[in-house]
Amino acid sequence: MEVFLDGRTLPRFDLYAEEIVIPFRAGNLSTMRALSDRPAGPGKVYAGTSNNQSLQPGLTLDGPISYFMKSERQKRAYAKKLAFLARQKDYLDLIQSDSVMQALKYEYQLSDKDLDDLIIEFNLLNIDHQFLDMNWEQVEKMLTDFLERKTLYRKEE
What we know:
Strand order of the largest sheet: 1-2
Largest sheet: 2 strands, antiparallel
Distance between the termini: 32 Å
Oligomer: single chain
Structural class: mainly alpha
Helix content: 40-55%
Radius of gyration: 24 Å
Protein backbone atom coordinates (compact mmCIF):
# COMPACT_ATOMS: atom_id res chain seq x y z
CA MET A 1 0.00 0.00 0.00
CA GLU A 2 2.91 2.35 0.70
CA VAL A 3 4.27 2.03 -2.86
CA PHE A 4 0.77 2.52 -4.25
CA LEU A 5 0.42 5.91 -2.50
CA ASP A 6 3.93 7.06 -3.37
CA GLY A 7 3.27 6.46 -7.05
CA ARG A 8 0.51 9.08 -7.04
CA THR A 9 2.36 11.89 -5.27
CA LEU A 10 4.89 14.23 -6.77
CA PRO A 11 8.53 13.23 -6.83
CA ARG A 12 10.18 15.20 -4.03
CA PHE A 13 13.79 14.08 -3.75
CA ASP A 14 16.11 11.18 -4.41
CA LEU A 15 18.16 9.52 -1.71
CA TYR A 16 21.18 7.39 -2.53
CA ALA A 17 22.86 5.99 0.55
CA GLU A 18 23.36 2.97 2.70
CA GLU A 19 20.45 1.98 4.87
CA ILE A 20 21.15 4.01 7.99
CA VAL A 21 18.43 4.91 10.43
CA ILE A 22 18.86 8.43 11.78
CA PRO A 23 16.38 9.50 14.44
CA PHE A 24 15.03 12.96 13.61
CA ARG A 25 13.15 15.24 15.90
CA ALA A 26 10.63 17.68 14.51
CA GLY A 27 12.19 21.04 13.78
CA ASN A 28 15.85 21.82 14.23
CA LEU A 29 16.43 20.37 17.70
CA SER A 30 19.91 19.08 18.29
CA THR A 31 20.59 15.92 20.25
CA MET A 32 23.81 17.46 21.55
CA ARG A 33 23.67 18.94 25.05
CA ALA A 34 24.46 22.60 25.55
CA LEU A 35 27.49 23.56 27.62
CA SER A 36 25.35 25.46 30.11
CA ASP A 37 21.80 26.63 30.80
CA ARG A 38 21.87 29.29 28.07
CA PRO A 39 20.27 28.53 24.71
CA ALA A 40 22.82 27.00 22.37
CA GLY A 41 22.94 26.85 18.61
CA PRO A 42 25.35 26.63 15.74
CA GLY A 43 27.35 29.81 15.24
CA LYS A 44 26.33 31.61 18.47
CA VAL A 45 29.01 33.51 20.40
CA TYR A 46 28.84 34.13 24.16
CA ALA A 47 30.96 36.08 26.62
CA GLY A 48 32.69 33.78 29.08
CA THR A 49 34.08 30.30 28.68
CA SER A 50 32.64 26.90 29.41
CA ASN A 51 34.05 24.97 32.37
CA ASN A 52 35.82 28.13 33.53
CA GLN A 53 37.67 26.93 36.62
CA SER A 54 40.06 29.89 36.83
CA LEU A 55 37.38 32.56 36.11
CA GLN A 56 39.46 34.07 33.32
CA PRO A 57 37.54 36.11 30.72
CA GLY A 58 37.02 34.69 27.29
CA LEU A 59 34.57 33.87 24.52
CA THR A 60 32.64 30.71 23.82
CA LEU A 61 31.90 29.86 20.20
CA ASP A 62 28.94 27.55 20.41
CA GLY A 63 29.06 25.08 17.58
CA PRO A 64 30.66 26.90 14.67
CA ILE A 65 32.00 23.58 13.43
CA SER A 66 28.94 21.55 14.37
CA TYR A 67 26.96 23.66 11.87
CA PHE A 68 28.78 21.78 9.08
CA MET A 69 28.47 18.32 10.63
CA LYS A 70 26.60 15.75 8.57
CA SER A 71 23.90 15.31 11.22
CA GLU A 72 23.25 19.07 11.41
CA ARG A 73 23.09 19.32 7.60
CA GLN A 74 20.64 16.42 7.54
CA LYS A 75 18.49 18.08 10.20
CA ARG A 76 18.38 21.30 8.19
CA ALA A 77 17.53 19.36 5.00
CA TYR A 78 14.81 17.46 6.86
CA ALA A 79 13.32 20.69 8.22
CA LYS A 80 13.39 22.13 4.70
CA LYS A 81 11.56 19.08 3.31
CA LEU A 82 8.95 19.30 6.08
CA ALA A 83 8.37 22.95 5.17
CA PHE A 84 8.03 21.96 1.50
CA LEU A 85 5.46 19.29 2.37
CA ALA A 86 3.57 21.77 4.53
CA ARG A 87 3.25 24.06 1.50
CA GLN A 88 1.75 21.10 -0.45
CA LYS A 89 -0.65 20.09 2.33
CA ASP A 90 -3.92 20.70 0.49
CA TYR A 91 -2.69 18.90 -2.63
CA LEU A 92 -1.52 15.90 -0.61
CA ASP A 93 -4.76 15.79 1.38
CA LEU A 94 -6.76 15.73 -1.85
CA ILE A 95 -4.65 13.15 -3.66
CA GLN A 96 -4.37 10.82 -0.68
CA SER A 97 -8.05 11.00 0.26
CA ASP A 98 -9.70 7.63 -0.35
CA SER A 99 -13.19 9.15 -0.53
CA VAL A 100 -12.11 11.64 -3.21
CA MET A 101 -10.37 8.92 -5.24
CA GLN A 102 -13.44 6.65 -5.01
CA ALA A 103 -15.70 9.51 -6.14
CA LEU A 104 -13.39 10.30 -9.08
CA LYS A 105 -13.24 6.64 -10.11
CA TYR A 106 -17.02 6.41 -10.01
CA GLU A 107 -17.69 9.72 -11.78
CA TYR A 108 -15.15 9.20 -14.56
CA GLN A 109 -15.55 5.39 -14.77
CA LEU A 110 -11.88 4.69 -14.10
CA SER A 111 -10.05 1.67 -12.77
CA ASP A 112 -7.39 2.05 -10.07
CA LYS A 113 -4.61 1.79 -12.65
CA ASP A 114 -6.24 4.30 -15.01
CA LEU A 115 -6.72 6.83 -12.21
CA ASP A 116 -3.14 6.40 -10.99
CA ASP A 117 -1.79 6.85 -14.51
CA LEU A 118 -3.87 10.00 -14.99
CA ILE A 119 -2.76 11.44 -11.65
CA ILE A 120 0.89 10.80 -12.51
CA GLU A 121 0.34 12.56 -15.84
CA PHE A 122 -1.43 15.41 -14.00
CA ASN A 123 1.56 15.72 -11.65
CA LEU A 124 4.02 15.79 -14.53
CA LEU A 125 2.05 18.53 -16.29
CA ASN A 126 2.14 20.64 -13.11
CA ILE A 127 5.69 19.91 -12.00
CA ASP A 128 6.77 23.52 -12.53
CA HIS A 129 4.76 24.77 -9.53
CA GLN A 130 4.14 21.42 -7.71
CA PHE A 131 0.94 22.83 -6.15
CA LEU A 132 2.85 24.92 -3.62
CA ASP A 133 0.63 27.22 -1.54
CA MET A 134 -2.51 26.23 -3.46
CA ASN A 135 -5.73 25.68 -1.58
CA TRP A 136 -7.93 22.59 -1.85
CA GLU A 137 -10.44 24.21 -4.21
CA GLN A 138 -7.76 25.28 -6.71
CA VAL A 139 -6.20 21.84 -6.82
CA GLU A 140 -9.60 20.15 -7.04
CA LYS A 141 -10.64 22.37 -9.94
CA MET A 142 -7.38 21.74 -11.77
CA LEU A 143 -7.72 17.98 -11.25
CA THR A 144 -11.36 17.82 -12.35
CA ASP A 145 -10.64 19.98 -15.43
CA PHE A 146 -7.75 17.69 -16.32
CA LEU A 147 -9.86 14.56 -15.86
CA GLU A 148 -12.70 16.11 -17.90
CA ARG A 149 -10.31 16.66 -20.82
CA LYS A 150 -8.70 13.23 -20.56
CA THR A 151 -11.88 11.20 -20.06
CA LEU A 152 -14.22 13.04 -22.42
CA TYR A 153 -14.72 9.97 -24.61
CA ARG A 154 -15.81 7.86 -21.59
CA LYS A 155 -18.67 10.22 -20.71
CA GLU A 156 -19.94 10.30 -24.31
CA GLU A 157 -20.47 6.52 -24.38
